[in-house]
Amino acid sequence: MGGGITLYHFLVLSLIVFGLGMYCVLSRRNAIGILMGVELILNSANINYLAFDFYGGAKGITGAVAYHYDGQIFAIFVIMLAAAEAVIGLAVVLAIYQNFKTIDVSATETLSG
Amino acid sequence: MRWIILLPLLGAAINFLAGPGLQKTVGKRAISVVGCGVVIAAFVIALYALTRMLRLAPDDRFMLDYLWPWMHIGGLDLDIAFWLDPLSMVMTLIVTGVGGLIHIYSTGYMHDDESYWRFFGWLNLFTFAMLTLVLGDNLWLMFVGWEGVGLCSFALIGFWYKVPANTTAGNKAFIVNRVGDLAFVVALYTLFQGLSSIGHPTLVTREIAKYAPMLAGVTMPYLGWQLVGFSTLLMFIGATGKSAQIPLYVWLPDAMAGPTPVSALIHAATMVTAGIYMVARLNFLFSMAPATMTVIAVIGGLTALFAATIGLAQNDIKKVLAYSTVSQLGYMFAAVGVGAYAAGVFHLMTHAFFKACLFLGSGSVIHAMGGEQDMRKMGGLRHKMPITYLTFLAATLAIAGIPPFAGFMSKDEIVWQAFAHGHVFVWFLLLLGAALTVFYMFRQVYMTFFGEFRGTHEQEHHLHESPPSMAYVLIVLGVLSVIGGIGNIPEFLISWKPFEEFLAPVFSSPATRHVVESHLNSHRVEAGFALITFIVVIGGWYFADVMYRQERIDAERFSRMFGGVVYDWVFNKYYVDELYDYVIVRPYLAATRVLAWFDLHIVDGVVNFAATVIIFLSWLSGLFDKYVVDGLVNAASNVTLDVGNRLRRLQTGSINGYLYGILAAVMVILLVRAVARTG
User: Fewer CB within 10 A of the end CB, N or C, for chain A?
Assistant: First the structure.
């Protein structure tokens, strides 16, 4: 099903999201912004998982025949991991704020040579 | 028998090592007991050995005491062993007997000396060395003793070392001796070579005696001379050094700087007789070399006359006796040179008696005069010192050759033998020497003991006879000077020569017997010659009497005869010492300076140059070190710093930058992977 929407459309979508997320990470000065970018990247990976899961074929990724929900289970894992990682990231941002009184990452260039 | 030698060594050891301590705690008596005791004990043992020896058959009279092996090198076998035969028996008795008497005398003479222990230490060591010389069974051991007596002589002459003149005299004695020793060693070497070449390499005396005839025709390798002649000649040169003959006698008069007992023991009775002993011991070799024998006889005769002339004009009481010793040694050498070995050794014995008596007597006089030795300051001492006077007179009569004193027996025998063996020139020299001997000896007696006292007042008050330790010795020696001649009476009187018979086995090799027996054998001629000698002797005495006792002829007139030149030359010992100084000593010292210059400039120059080269090389390597090695090290650090600088720029601290970097790296990895997969 999905008429004219093939797997490749999803892959392109995830690629675009990945790219945007990369761009966010690389170009933002705001620490929260960077974290948002990381979330985008993770979610793009999720899109990939789900797309392959839907369009995967008779066998799942693990090779089982009876069910093929592997991708969706992977996606839940990823979301969970993203959440955990966001917690850590925010803890780091908090620590940066406490030390530098700002969350502008250009202020943390104290280790420059 | 070894104790004869080892006892004095023990005495020397005790005196040297424990001496100062003993002297402080127990006093000088302890040292006297040790010092004299060992020598007297050795004499007693020697007497006992004599009795043992006399019990043996005449041809069999030798005893060997083997101690231990010494050197066994190649063909040379030397052992420490002592060989007692009639000749060494005689010498041992003289050394220990007269030596013992002189040791006793020294307890009195050296009584006030601080270094009493040192004196007796050296005296004992000397006795040990002399006995080693006499009793050693091989020539090398004899040489050890030879050197040893030279050393002790040096030490004893310079005994009062704080006076520089004494040490100089000691040096002179030792150095002149050394010249002779060099000749002796070369002689030993050539002798050994000769013996090896005929297949019997040995230096043991009795074995050399056995093989000597085989050396008859052997010649030296490059020179073509007779080996025996060459070797014996060199040995005689060694003897001239030790026994003060021409040309190496110059040390003996200077040796009078030592204490008088030293002069008596070493320079009258024992050390100087070592040369005679050596010739007598090796008579089998000397008899095979007539040329050397002639040399010995002529030099002996010349020395006898020469030294007597110098003795005429001396004013020091000991110097007269010193020159007299040189002269009498000349007599002994003349005797062995013409082949009268027994006569020479006999004169050695009688000379030991009377010369020791004379020296000790002069020591007594010097002691009484408070150290004065100039005879011109003496006079009339016979009233104050009767014992000294009588013994001195007895010894003088002996040395003059007045019968029946000891010297007559021995000296007349020599004079006669010189003529009998055909050496007329030597006989004449000896006769003239006898006249002069009488003259200067009686001059000495008259100047010292007769007439008016010519010294200072304090000296006159101090005059006294010597203490018993000295006086008794003088008496013993005086008596021996009188009766000592009994061992060997000239043949024209009685046929009584036990001494010569006793020594006969020693002089029994074929060559020696040939030499000894080839002489005129007429008793009447002998009697006639004895008469001539006697007349000459009486004439000499008369002259001295007139000149010095009756003072009818003024001695001064004689001195001024011929413009005083003769007297001047005689008084100054013919300027021989000055000659030696110019010809030998100065060039030697100049050579020393040249060599010193060489050492300082050239040798040190080379060393300094080497040092400079090394410094230059080290400077070069320093450069290398500075530029190359340090350069490398510095470059390494510079590179590191540079790279570090550049790499540091990666550390921007900007998180965005880091993330960019991560992205780029991942890209590259994927790219490489993709390319690698397709490739």
Answer: N
At residue B66, the 3 state secondary structure works out as: strand
H or E segment and range at residue B80:
strand B76-84
What's domain A7-101's architecture?
A: Orthogonal Bundle (1.10)
Alpha helices in B110-216 (DSSP H): 116-135, 139-157, 164-197, 205-211
Low-confidence ranges of chain B (pLDDT < 50): none
- Hey, are the CB atoms on A105 and B655 less than 8 Å from each other? yes
ipTM for this model: 0.77
Domain ranges of chain B: 365-571, 573-648, 654-679
Chain B nearest-CA distance from A29, in A, is: 8
Chain centroid to CA B2: how far?
A: 23
- Which residue in this structure is represented by tokens 């001539």? B532
Token look-up 């001047």 returns B568
The residue extents of the domains of chain A are: 7-101
Q: Across the interface, which of A28, A29, A111 has its CB nearest the CB of B653?
A: A111
| Residues across chain B | 679
Q: At what angle do helices B274-281 and B317-338 cross, to 10 degrees?
A: 10
**Interchain proximity A112–B656, CB inside 8 Å:** no
Q: How many CB atoms lie within 10 A of CB B591?
A: 10
Which residues face B68 on adjacent strands? B80
* Per-residue pLDDT, B510: 66
Q: What is the pLDDT of residue A89?
A: 94
Q: CB-based contact (8 Å) between B652 and chain A?
A: yes
DSSP B267: I
Instruction: Pull the structure tokens for residue B431.
Output: 């006769």
Q: Name the token pair of B449.
A: 């003991």
pLDDT at A58 over 60: no
Packing angle between helix B424-449 and helix B523-544, nearest 10 degrees?
30
Tens of pLDDT along B252-286? Answer: 888 888 888 888 887 776 777 788 888 888 888 88
pLDDT for res B679: 67
Name the 3-class secondary structure at B194.
Answer: helix
**CA nearest B553: which of B561, B541, B565, B545?**
B545
Mean pLDDT value of segment A14-22: 94
> SS3 breakdown of chain A: % helix, strand, coil, rounded to 5?
75, 0, 25
Distance CA B201, CA B80 (A): 17
> What is the DSSP code (8-state) at residue B63?
E
Check: pTM over 0.90? Answer yes or no.
no
CB-CB neighbours of B246 under 10 Å? 17
Which candidate from B648, B650, B659 shows the least CB-CB separation from A26?
A: B659
**Which residues of A fall within a CB distance of 8 Å from B653?**
108-112
Read off the pLDDT band of A113 (50, 70, 90): low
